[in-house]
Amino acid sequence: MTTKIEKIKIDYKGKQVTARKLTVASEIPIDIDTAWTKVQTSALLNFVTNGKVKFKPTGGHFPEIWKEGDTVSARMFVYGFVPFGGLHSLYFEKIDNVNKILQTREWDNSAKVWNHKISLKKLTDTTIIYEDEIVIYGGMLTGFITSWAKSFYKHRQKRWQLVATNPTLKK
């Protein structure tokens, strides 16, 4: 697993601000088509975030499959019980079946910008590179949020390893 954090400039409400770009990548022993099918499901999100974040969707549940152009919202509970950020919104900006990229624009009261791009790249017929790239801006909390996000995405990718190596998981 590799991780990298960079300071970058982004536009936020008409102003140039300093954000962070976090990149976490892993080699995962799973075929790309299976991984791509799973990445588009809310069941996988709930599985890979388990232990770090619990989402309580405002509509009672997330859609089974994510759809480009949809926006969903949820309350986020860090470690399953600590409320954080208020209402968290996820806009599914791009779901690219050809290039295997899923891109969301997310925000809440603390993380003003949380733009997340998932990319899958085929290494072999049974192995992929899975990459999370997240642009984070939270004002004075940007450094703290990014530090926590690094731990969170490393956790997610370790959970992905469980998905890849345990065919009985229905995620």
Question: Mind explaining what this structure looks like?
Answer:
This protein has an eight-stranded antiparallel β-sheet with strand order 1-2-8-7-6-5-4-3, covered by helices on one side. The chain has 171 residues and is of the alpha+beta class. 23% of the residues lie in helices and 49% in strands.
Quick description:
The chain has 3 helices and 8 strands. Strand 6 and strand 7 form a beta hairpin. The chain starts with a strand and ends in a 6-residue tail after the last helix.
Give structural attributes.
171 residues, alpha+beta, 3 helices, 23% helix
Quickly count the helices. 3
Query: Strand percentage, roughly?
Result: over 45%
Helix content: 10-25%
Poorly predicted parts: none
- Total strand segments: 8
Rg, nearest Å: 16 Å
- Going across the biggest sheet, name each strand in turn: 1-2-8-7-6-5-4-3
Please write the string of helix (H) and strand (E) elements.
EEHHEEEEEEH
What can be said about the biggest beta sheet?
8 strands, antiparallel
Query: On the 0-100 scale, what is the average pLDDT?
Result: 96
| Basic shape | globular
Structural class: alpha+beta
N-C termini distance: 22 Å
